[in-house]
Design brief:
The protein has helices at 19-27, 41-54, 75-97, 118-127, 142-150, 166-172, 220-238, and strands at residues 2-8, 30-35, 60-65, 102-108, 132-137, 162-165, 180-184, 200-206, 214-219, 243-249. With 251 residues, it is an alpha/beta fold. It has two domains: 2-137, 3-Layer(aba) Sandwich (Cobalt-precorrin-4 Transmethylase, domain 1), CATH 3.40.1010.10; 142-249, Tetrapyrrole methylase, C-terminal domain (Methyltransferase, Cobalt-precorrin-4 Transmethylase, Domain 2). The strands form two sheets. A five-stranded parallel β-sheet has the order 3-2-4-1-5, with helices on both faces. A five-stranded mixed β-sheet has the order 6-7-10-8-9, with helices on both faces. The termini are far apart. Bound molecules: S-adenosylmethionine.
């Protein structure tokens, strides 16, 4: 039997690792580390650093090239095929590096429950009959780091929060009956599609938990344009960007 742990590692700060994550890593025989292309090499460096710090000397680190998602065609179908390809890749790696079973680990950005596919991919491994037992070690999410950095509560008193993507906000607009929306995976400026930006506040953060962390907050109509310029500048300087924001209807 292969014991596969999906370990949430937080969002860029090695100190985000929980004691449960550290203990699970210390017991791992194999850690699979994805290479996601040049732009994400900073993120791979963090994973390497975590392994150096917390893995036992006998553990094996296996770096692999993550399959990429097709950009053209039906989005849902492309995602399904991409997950199939990653499942196949993990299956091969686990068969090669854990032939007698053992403890394997994957380091998952933030937490595996939030806009992450690893649990959907491990379901494929289980369905394919791989002798595998999957566990999750929860991690600190980018949403938590955003609210902590701005020192704000996520929800208004007794009120719901909607978590969505930039694409959904652009295509579907503001959800009915909701006053707070957290937006992730925005390729840039989905908030500019909202009518009446003076009716919203925004709390924005990029590279949260990392030395480059950058924050902006204010009334949306006042900071929308400077925020877009700032984001573009950061993206040009760093070569990549990851950002998240919380929007709240005023009053
Ligand atoms: C594929 S999702 C992964 C989310 C992750 N599982 C989590 O728990 O936060 C990637 C998105 O998370 C957000 N994100 C992750 N890390 C971030 C960081 N360090 N700073 C800002 N946003 C981040 C961004 O919205 C990014 O587009």
């Amino acid at each position: 039997m292969i014991q596969l742990a999906l370990i949430g590692i937080g969002t860029g700060n090695p100190d985000h690792l929980t004691l449960a994550a550290v203990n699970t890593l210390a017991q791992a025989d194999v850690v699979l580390l994805p290479r996601k292309g040049k732009a994400k090499s900073d993120l791979l460096d963090l994973r390497r650093l975590i392994c150096e710090r917390w893995l036992s000397a006998k553990a094996n680190i296996v770096e692999f090239d993550l399959p990429t998602r097709a950009a053209q065609g039906d989005y849902q179908q492309n995602v399904r095929q991409w997950h199939d390809a990653i499942a196949h890749c993990w299956q091969q790696l686990l068969a090669t590096h854990c032939p007698q079973g053992g403890r394997a680990a994957l380091l998952i950005w933030g937490d595996p429950s939030l806009y992450d596919s690893s649990l959907r991919i491990t379901e494929r491994l289980e369905a394919a009959g791989l002798p595998i037992n999957v566990t999750v070690v929860p991690g600190i999410t980018s949403l938590q780091v955003l609210t902590a950095a701005h020192r704000i509560p996520l929800n208004a008193i007794g009120a719901p929060v909607h978590i969505t993507t930039g694409r959904q906000l652009r295509e579907q607009g503001w959800p009915d009956g909701i006053d707070r929306v957290a937006v992730m995976l925005d390729s840039g400026g989905a908030f500019t599609t909202l009518p009446n930006p003076e009716h919203y506040d925004i709390w924005w953060g990029a590279y949260l938990g990392m030395p480059e962390q950058s924050l902006m907050a204010g009334r949306l109509d006042r900071i929308s344009e400077p925020l877009l310029q700032h984001r573009q500048h950061l993206r040009d300087t760093q070569g990549w960007i990851m950002d998240i924001y919380l929007l709240a209807r005023r009053g």
